[in-house]
TrEMBL record:
Its EC number is 3.1.1.5. It comes from the Bacteria. One of its GO terms (molecular function) is phosphatidylcholine lysophospholipase activity. Keywords: Hydrolase. Residues 38-293 form the Serine aminopeptidase S33 domain. It comes from Sphingomonas yantingensis. This is Lysophospholipase.
Length: 313
């Protein structure tokens, strides 16, 4: 356990924490860890809403040990990439189009600067943004992995009604205001920890990094984020281009996910011509790569096998 803890709570030797500036001047915090020796290829990993790349250092160690270059950046408006509104702990973005533009531009620069094959891995919101970028031909990886992708949001009311209510709330006041006070979703009796992982030590890693650097803490989303999340995921589910997107995709789905709509994700991934899905049951919460070892190891093994097949050296 001590060895695992050291992997999760310290930056790896050889990794570089730097900055990337978008076309509009927005500064993003980035992580780059070149492979030792000749690289097997390059992975761009993008986390979910409120994530920081420190949460995935253990997974980065796994891929780096297999010869991959590993890169990640914090999305604008969260983590170490600043805030887009006046609330220091609110995950606000004016529109998801900014995320799309950032990923397109970063991918173009990163792909030119790193050896292939190039792989895109996205968790949760990052999974949605990855798939949307694939459908838009904004990125061109050899293969992509969607981990508990946000292809629909889990809620107590039908998504169409939730979308209309969110749009109404965005228009009633400051769209940058927090949509709720805390936790990962409103009006839930589940703790934030139980929504994310069954492994209390890995959950505590996030708290460790937030205490080490308070600017990394991102709280609830803004109403602008919520409204766009409902609208954009719906539009992707309705997009006919999904059925013609040819990049091989692996979807890892937590069927008991309390944050994203697992059924919507499975249905959408099933429409992709070159896709396969691995589902987890009640043993898995939302953060599959930060779950207890039986889940996490199964997820990593599936990713390894998929990349060996679809993105060979």
């Amino acid at each position: 356990m001590a060895g695992q803890l050291s992997l999760r709570r310290a930056y790896p030797a050889g990794a570089v924490i730097g900055e990337w500036r978008a076309a509009d001047g927005w500064v993003h915090r980035r992580f780059d860890w070149p492979a030792a020796g000749a690289a097997r290829g390059s992975i761009l990993f993008q986390g979910g809403r409120g994530d920081v790349f420190e949460k995935y250092l253990e997974a980065f160690h796994h891929w780096h040990a297999r010869g991959w270059n590993v890169t990640s950046f914090d999305w604008r408006g969260q983590g170490g990439s600043g805030r887009c509104g006046p609330h220091p702990h609110c995950g606000h973005v004016e529109r998801f189009g900014l995320f799309h533009a950032d990923l397109r531009a970063f991918w173009s620069e990163w792909r030119t600067a790193t050896p292939g094959p190039h792989v895109l891995i996205g968790h949760s919101m990052g999974g949605f943004l990855a798939l949307r970028s694939l459908v838009d031909d904004a990125v061109d990886p050899a293969a992509a992995v969607l981990v508990a992708p946000m292809l629909g949001l889990k809620g107590a009311i039908p998504s169409r009604l939730a979308e209309r209510l969110a749009r109404l709330m965005r228009g009633l006041g400051d769209p940058a205001r927090p949509a709720w006070k805390g936790n990962e979703r409103p009006a839930t009796t589940e703790t934030r920890e139980s929504l994310l992982t069954h492994d209390p030590d890995r959950y505590a890693d996030e708290i460790f990094w937030q205490q080490a650097d308070p600017r990394l803490m991102t709280g609830p989303p803004s109403w602008a984020w919520v409204a766009d999340a409902f609208a954009e995921t719906r539009m992707l589910r309705e997009d006919a281009r999904v059925a013609t997107m040819q990049v091989p995709v692996l979807g890892l789905i937590a069927e008991a996910d309390g944050l994203v709509d697992a059924k919507a994700a499975k249905a959408l991934i099933a429409r992709l011509p070159e896709a396969r899905t691995l589902a987890f049951g009640r043993e898995a919460a939302h953060e599959l790569l930060r779950e207890a070892d039986p889940v996490r190891d199964r997820a990593l093994a599936a990713i390894d096998g998929f990349l060996d097949e679809k993105a060979p050296r």
